Amino acid sequence: MARSEWRDTTVHTDVLVVGAGPAGLALTLMLLRSGVRVTLAERSTAFRRDFHGEILQPGGQLVLDQLGVLEGAERRGAHTLEGFQVVQGHRTLLDIDYRRLPAPHDRLLALPQPHLLAELLATCARLPGFTYLDGHRVSALTEDDGRCTGAVVTRLGTRRVRVRASVVVGADGRFSKTRKLAGIDAGRTDVFDQDVVWFTVPAPGRATGRVRIHRAGAAAVLVHDTHPDRLRIGWTLPHGSYNRVTAEGIAGIKRDLAAALPAHADLLHEHLTGLGDLSLLDVFAANAPTWTRDGLVLLGDAAHTHGPLGAQGINLALQDAAVLHPVLVAALAAGDVRRARLVAFEQARRPVAEAVTRMQRVQAKAFFGTGGRAAAFLRARAAAVVTRTPVGARITSRIAYGRTPVQVHTDLFTAGAVPGARAA
Ligand SMILES: Cc1cc2nc3c(=O)[nH]c(=O)nc-3n(C[C@H](O)[C@H](O)[C@H](O)COP(=O)(O)OP(=O)(O)OC[C@H]3O[C@@H](n4cnc5c(N)ncnc54)[C@H](O)[C@@H]3O)c2cc1C
After folding, report:
1. DSSP 8-state code for residue 367
2. How far is the centre of ligand 1, averaged over its atoms, from the C-alpha of 113 (Å)?
3. What are the b/e assignments for 333-351, b being 16+ CB within 10 Å?
4. pTM, two decimal places
5. Any ligand 1 atom below 6 A from CB of 171
6. Which of 124, 298, 364, 383 has its Cβ near the most Cβ atoms within 10 Å?
């Protein structure tokens, strides 16, 4: 792996991927395995991303398994979870049991993103053709006659690397700079009207084995096991209410949370010591009006952003990578990276992303709003269907995989998949 130690330098590569999140790293690995040279630019120098979600659906597990990295990522530390539950007081409103799905991916996995990303990066680093520019942000795109021909990435504003690439892939997340530089709108929509307060507490011997959403008045609190022996807690609040909620300081928050999570009140009391233990995250959904330009593609959150509901974002990001991989390999092999070719990726994935947004809208209404009698009726009906009927088994499979499981094109894992790519 070549590391960056340049001032003004030019790098020639086949594909520049911006962003080493799940989407960018998975795509990088697939392309490297197909003999494509990839330069990966990532603004951070460490995978410190405690604020990111980590629940991985079976569809994403399948992609990682086919890439041969699931086991290694899991060995770095993870928790197996049997399913999702929505509870209110002592009542279980909804119980989605993943053990109904076919093995071996008949579970949810709480896999910290640093473990997933470190495993993917280590695997990329063992392959030829890989250049990793960590600590580098994309600052400009280069163009020739309307076609994207690369980007300028900078480190602390002092080092500048001009990356000449056949294709630039924007995998730089929900606030994507690549998308902005390409003049593409984020396409933000109002699916959620919530913020999430996010934190973890030590909980040795207190694993719950599930993702649980505890409904409590206007709020909902998500709880699941996380490595190592901790509980991750996500408290959803109406947008803009954080200042009011924190007006009484940590004592008021402990009181409200303990009322919603009586079984964990002792942990909250012992381990929440100040507002600094909490991170506040803005939750929103978006879908960019286009994901492709000549020589440029957006994927993962950069193309379509989803909230944490139903744990879909990482799943979609990994599946996006698996679908984009053959499209890019074919485009590079043909020497034609115009939008007309790349758009096949967008056509395949946009309906999937839209379906997830629709599903999250229903979930947000059914399980997070106070909503009065109509919402209560909808909740009870949906819960009964999903929990007990064969339709529920199909819905579980849809949440786990999308319409159909996405397979990695391992048949393209050969250095000759793109003739001449390495030699260029
Ligand atoms: C509170 C919350 C909880 C969530 N929980 C879950 C969950 O449990 N399960 C789930 O599946 N999804 C969850 N999600 C969504 C999930 O985190 C994202 O969908 C997923 O991480 C998207 O992956 P990505 O690779 O597209 O983008 P990201 O993971 O955002 O990665 C983008 C990368 O690009 C880098 N980058 C950004 N800007 C630049 C730049 N200018 N130059 C270079 N690099 C740059 C970033 O540092 C980052 O490494 C959650 C989201 C939120 C907000």
Report:
1. I
2. 9
3. beeebebebbbbbbeebbe
4. 0.94
5. yes
6. 298
User: For residues 291 and 324, is the Cβ–Cβ distance under 8 A?
Assistant: no
Ligand 1 centroid – CA 202 distance (Å): 24
Give the nearest ligand 1 atom to 23 CA. Answer: 25
Residue-wise pLDDT tens digits, 242-259: 888 888 889 989 998 999
The tokens for 86 are 């929505």
- Encoded amino acid at 110, one letter: A
Q: Which domains does the chain have, with CATH numbers?
A: 2-78+110-189+286-412 (3.50.50.60), 194-282 (3.30.9.10)
Atom of ligand 1 at shortest range from CA of 19: 34
Cβ contacts of residue 71 below 8 Å, gap of 6+? 65
Q: How far is C-alpha 323 from the chain's CA centre? A: 16
Q: Is the CB–ligand 1 distance for residue 177 below 6 Å?
A: yes
By three-state DSSP, how is residue 357 classified?
helix
Q: Tell me: the pLDDT tens digits for 36-90? A: 999 999 999 987 665 678 999 999 999 999 999 999 999 999 999 999 998 988 8
